[in-house]
Write a structure and sequence with these properties.
273 residues, mainly alpha, 15 helices, flat
Length: 273
């Protein structure tokens, strides 16, 4: 320690320290530069491959939709099979399937759903639910919901209680798409606060997926979670569910929460004008 102290007092440490700092800065800059270059090259490569894959996928999807070609026939093409073994190709293929599924209905949509299952892409989506990254989980949930994989409901609804708000929203929206008002039972028992942003997203999901059967929405008014009750009142108002007014009357007469009472009374006035 005395030697270090002597070096410090004599100022002999300054030159070695500055030299080391310069070398460290240069090395860090070089490493950062190489990382940026590698990342950019990887992005450029993916964009190039994505364009190449898209032209192949377009031909395959055209055959599947309009010529009733099954995946068993598609995989007879060895070139396609080689590409299908790469994860990036499957990602591009899944994105293409989703885009097509959003634009087609009826028998065409069913063909795409069948291809999604037969090709094993559904397994990729389920594996994404196990990822440690919330973004990957969201992607898997979205894919399974898009292709109406109802057996995924129980696994998806678990993420409605996740810490990450975006993951919560994606999970709840997917649950509503898959099971409609069946997801209400889980909302009733939801213990975490549902803020205004989440409420708007949930209401939007009910509107977007055109949930015709609204049986059960009134149970939201029975929740111990006041934010869930507020959500129920907003849903009744936005969807104009006048048949639920008796439940709103009961809530207004029996709740001890002044804010909820006021919201229930305001809703009654709005829907009975």
């Amino acid at each position: 320690m005395r030697e270090f102290w002597e070096l410090y007092k004599n100022g002999q440490w300054e030159v070695p320290f500055l030299t080391f700092s310069i070398y460290l800065f240069v090395a860090a800059s070089l490493i950062l530069y190489l990382i940026i270059v590698a990342s950019r090259n990887d992005k450029i490569k993916k964009e190039r491959l994505s364009k190449e894959y898209s032209s192949i996928i377009d031909k395959v999807m055209s055959a599947v939709i309009f010529q009733d070609v099954s995946f068993a026939e598609v995989k007879k093409d060895k070139n396609f099979l080689v590409l299908f073994d790469t994860s990036f190709f499957r990602e591009v293929l899944t994105e293409s399937l989703i885009n097509l599924h959003k634009n087609y209905e009826g028998i065409y949509a069913q063909k795409l759903e069948q291809f999604y299952k037969e090709s094993g892409l559904i397994k990729d989506s389920f594996r994404k639910l196990k990822s440690l990254k919330w973004e990957v989980k969201c992607k898997g949930i979205t894919e399974l919901a898009e292709f109406n994989i109802k057996e995924a409901f129980d696994r998806i609804i678990v993420y409605s209680k996740a810490r990450k708000k975006t993951l919560k929203i994606v999970a709840l929206n997917a649950a509503i798409k898959l099971e409609g008002t069946e997801s209400v039972n889980y909302l009733v028992e939801h213990s975490d606060p549902i803020d205004d942003w989440m409420q708007l997203n949930i209401i939007g999901a009910f509107k977007k997926h055109d949930v015709g059967d609204t049986v059960g929405i009134e149970h939201l008014l029975e929740s111990q979670n006041t934010t869930v009750v507020a959500l129920g009142l907003k849903l009744i108002k936005e969807l104009k569910l006048t048949q639920k007014l008796p439940h709103v009357v009961h809530l207004a007469e029996n709740t001890s929460n002044t804010v909820i009472k006021y919201k229930a009374q305001s809703l009654l006035q709005a829907l009975t004008v």
